[in-house]
Amino acid sequence: MVDDHPLFVRGLELLLPEASDGRASVVAATGDAASAASLVRRTVPDLVLVDLHMPAPGGVRAIAAIRRSTPRTRIVAMSGDDDAASALAALRAGAEGFLPKSTEVADVLQPLLSVLDGWAVLPADLLGALLGPGREQPAPVDLDESERQLLQLIAAGDTTTEISLHLHVSERTVKRQTATLLRKLRVSSRTEAAALAGRAGML
């Protein structure tokens, strides 16, 4: 955890193991954004939670530094507010998702597991704010029924496992079909695919 609020960090240290039946725990924490990347290199966590509103250099720069030094590490930004501009800056810096700090600990676990499974996570209202009513409409893409169904499941935030159960195919098939769909949509991430689905009126 990269967060300068000791009470919040301590709360997750105590509650995450209990909420996850021991599957999740905080292995290290720092309130210094400048030292975040070196701490991640030393401790090699599966996932890093980064508070966006920290003293200089700040959470967004910490995310960018972590992404450069350990590109395979998954990162989720957190904030005490739902500022779309800050969340977008975090995503551009390399975060796979954003969660408000108001989220209950019991409700934090599933989004974090989804990020570890390769998905991006955003609150629905924040996704709508990022899309914005004035955004340019995307060029139409010709998708068949199975591709449209897969895109809708991705946009709904379903995990690879959940999609495989819904479509009655293997998780490996879901990953292959998702990669093909992203290429067809000319996007590089599931977050972009979800945004495209929103702009196309598929949510």
UniProtKB/TrEMBL annotation:
- 4-aspartylphosphate is carried by which residues? D51
Query: Which Gene3D superfamilies does this UniProt record tie to the protein?
Result: 3.40.50.2300
Q: Name one GO biological process term.
A: phosphorelay signal transduction system
A Gene Ontology molecular function term for this protein is:
DNA binding
SMART domains, alphabetized? HTH_LUXR, REC
Give yes or no: UniProt keyword Zinc: no
Domain HTH luxR-type positions: 136-201
Annotated Response regulatory domain ranges read 1-116
What are the protein's UniProt keywords? Answer: DNA-binding, Phosphoprotein
Q: Do you know which InterPro entries this protein is assigned to?
A: CheY-like_superfamily, Sig_transdc_resp-reg_C-effctor, Sig_transdc_resp-reg_receiver, Tscrpt_reg_LuxR_C, WalR-like
- Protein name as catalogued: Two component LuxR family transcriptional regulator
| Source organism (scientific name) | Actinoplanes friuliensis DSM 7358
